[in-house]
Write a structure and sequence with these properties.
Structural class: mainly beta
CATH superfamily: YVTN repeat-like/Quinoprotein amine dehydrogenase
CATH topology: Methylamine Dehydrogenase, Chain H
Largest sheet: 5 strands, mixed
CATH architecture: 7 Propeller
Number of strands: 29
Radius of gyration: 20 Å
Number of helices: 3
Strand content: 35-45%
Distance between the termini: 7 Å
CATH class: Mainly Beta
Strand order of the largest sheet: 16-20-19-18-17
Length: about 375
């Protein structure tokens, strides 16, 4: 683990790094990096200091940026072309101004953004929009498509969520890098036992297998949870306990996603984006409920709270100290919450209004450690 606490922040205007003091009391902001690209997700290897940032958009095309010096300098593996390439190819003056030269994008225009990054053993995975899975065996310099997912029999039935058809979550079993889980909005949860060669769709309800009407288009139906999964985490240990924040509710699986049970009762809303689990205690988790589709997607009653469970979602408690309790209209997006792995576990989240909040007592109290950043799309902690 790195001696310097760091938060890796993806934003609409590049990647930022927050360097913390040893006691995590003070934080300094540096950036933006990655040429100001929209960066959906930044992850890092705490042992080597290598970082990867996935992003892009219509103008730039998609790519994965990499740093080998703790985020001070970055290089980009461009994967698809964008409008800038189209303009430059037809305007020599513009091409000269931006230093453009003809190139052959390895994936053409197949996708417009990299949405998620996952470091699994010696491999790096990337999820895209629209939903595809890429893999790199050379630390992110070159990438290949994982055809087992793209060619899944259900692929023709996948429907986009409000943000598009995005592969936003990549998680694994640290003891077995061949075991993978991904989340696609709005196609649901998929699992692989062979490093991505084959995939199973895992969205079944643990109870009421005949299905039940929830009065919401994203709710459970036909014996399955809603397919608009927002975020998934895996609890520490060998039992393959998973949690997910869905468009409609919070869910727990005790069998690696084979079946899911609702743990939404006790929360003020069925809607939210992020969920995180304690790195060593699989019964402790945190989520940030928002007030739903038609009400603005901000904290209920415009008062911010992180909701914590100490018993795997059986009961929940709101933790508010240090968070704004009046006129709070921010949103925390699906990759916008993180935990570190230090002895006193830190919990962190970033908002679409550009603030970063930190808790050093497992969510009991909170403090704003950065503000006025661009819209925050993701937070990870080293």
């Amino acid at each position: 683990m790195t001696d310097v606490p760091r938060l890796l922040i993806g934003t609409t205007k590049g990647a930022f790094i927050l360097d913390g003091s040893a006691d995590r009391a003070d934080w300094s902001v540096r950036g933006p990096y990655c040429d100001g690209w929209p960066i959906n997700h930044v992850v890092g290897d705490p042992d080597t200091g290598t970082m990867w940032a996935g992003g892009g958009g219509e103008w730039s095309g998609a790519g994965v940026w990499r740093s080998t010096d703790h985020g001070h300098t970055w290089s980009c593996a461009r994967l698809t072309s964008g409008k800038a390439d189209e303009w430059a190819a037809n305007d020599a003056g513009f091409a000269e101004m931006i230093g453009w030269a003809p190139w052959d994008p390895p994936f053409g225009t197949q996708f417009g953004q990299v949405w998620s990054i996952g470091r699994v053993g010696e491999r790096v995975y990337a999820g895209t929009k629209p939903a595809m899975l890429l893999v790199s065996d050379d630390d992110g310099e070159t990438w290949e498509l994982v055809p087992g997912l793209t060619d899944h029999p259900s692929a023709g039935e996948w429907n986009p969520g409000a943000a598009g058809l995005v592969l936003h979550t990549i998680i694994s079993d640290p003891a077995d890098p061949e075991k993978l889980w991904i989340g696609i909005s709005a196609a649901g949860v998929f699992a692989s036992k062979d490093g991505g060669a084959t995939w199973e769709r895992r969205n079944d309800l643990a109870d009421d297998p005949d299905g039940r009407a929830e009065g919401h288009p994203a709710g459970p139906a036909d014996g399955q949870i809603g397919h608009c999964v927002h975020n998934i985490v895996r609890a520490d240990g060998s039992e393959d306990v998973l949690y997910q924040q869905n468009h409609y509710g919070v869910w727990r699986s005790a069998d690696g996603g084979q079946t899911w049970t609702s743990i939404t009762e006790g929360l003020p809303s069925t809607f939210g984006f992020p969920i995180r689990v304690h790195p060593r205690d699989g019964q402790t988790l945190w989520t940030i409920p928002l007030n739903g589709d038609t009400q603005g997607r901000f904290p209920p009653n415009a008062a911010a709270a992180v909701w914590r469970s100490r018993d795997g979602g059986t009961t929940w408690e709101a933790r508010r100290e240090g968070l704004p309790q009046e006129a709070c209209y921010f949103t925390v997006l699906r990759q916008g919450m993180a935990t570190d792995r230090r002895a006193d576990v830190g919990v962190y989240f970033g908002t679409n209004s550009g603030s970063v909040f930190a808790s050093l007592d497992e969510g009991e109290t909170w403090r704003e450690v950065a503000r006025h950043l661009p819209t925050i799309l993701s937070v990870e902690a080293l």
